[in-house]
Amino acid sequence: MRRTSLAILAAAGVLLCGAASAGTRLTVHVRTYDVAGKTGAELIEAMDGLGPRHGHATRAIAETGYAVHWKLDVTRDNGICRLRQANGTIDITYTFPRRMSQAGPALGRRWERFMAGVRQHEHTHGRIAKQMMRATDTALAGLKRQDNWFCTGLRRDARRRIDTIYADYEARQNAFDAREHRDGGHVEQLVDALIKK
After folding, report:
1. Residue 191 DSSP class
2. If pLDDT is split at 50, 70 and 90, which confidence band does 37 have?
3. Cβ(86)–Cβ(71) under 8 Å?
4. What pTM value is reported for the model?
């Protein structure tokens, strides 16, 4: 499961010699919530009651949340506006369950396999988000146009490119979730393997 936000900040540029390269900064946080149970079914029930909210009435096992911010440094010279630098920041937060109860060796092994699959799923969401940042960085490189004193058109062009890429990668996130959460899919297999005796 995912939650996302996107923000774009525009900064007036100062004309400097040379061009600074665009850059992306990544921060990753991991949060946990505690679950207990003596069986796989009890652990699933605990996650259903304590996991991150997914919609109004349901909860997820785990979650990948990310917030994206772009700071655009624009300069104007001889009527031409240029995107001198685009600094992107993506803050990714993973939320996972943490088993607090004692378990026998069989349940312990099933839990470890379950969590390996859950982490793989959530880290794929994170990887898609990082790909989105690289694609945006590439799409913004070298952006320029003749424009007014405020570079309004250039900022609008940059925003349109960012929004287009964001929409494309959100569609990729949704397609990945649809495959993983379908009947008989990877998530159902993980849950079934944890519950089995």
Report:
1. H
2. very high
3. yes
4. 0.85
Pull the structure tokens for residue 70: 């772009």
- 86 membership: H or E segment, kind and range: strand 80-99
Paired tokens of 30? 């991991």
Two tokens, residue 151? 């570079």
Which residues, including other chains, have CB under 8 Å from residue 102's CB and lie 6 or more apart?
A: none
> Helix or strand or coil: residue 195?
helix
Bridging pattern class, strands 144-146 and 58-59: unpaired
Provide the token pair at 189: 């297999």
SS3 (DSSP) at 27: strand
Residue where the block lists tokens 């569609």: 171
Alpha-carbon distances of 30 from 27, 119, 151, rounded to whole Å: 10, 11, 39
Q: What is the rounded distance in angstroms from the CA atom of residue 130 to the CA atom of residue 56?
A: 28
Predicted confidence (pLDDT) per residue in 104-157, tens digit: 899 999 999 999 999 999 999 999 999 999 999 999 999 999 999 999 999 999
DSSP class of residue 18 equals: S
- Cα separations in angstroms, 15 against 18, 55, 77, 114, 153: 9, 47, 8, 54, 19
In eight-state DSSP terms, residue 79 is T
Q: State the residue range of the domain holding 179.
A: 2-195
Q: How many domains does the chain have?
A: 1
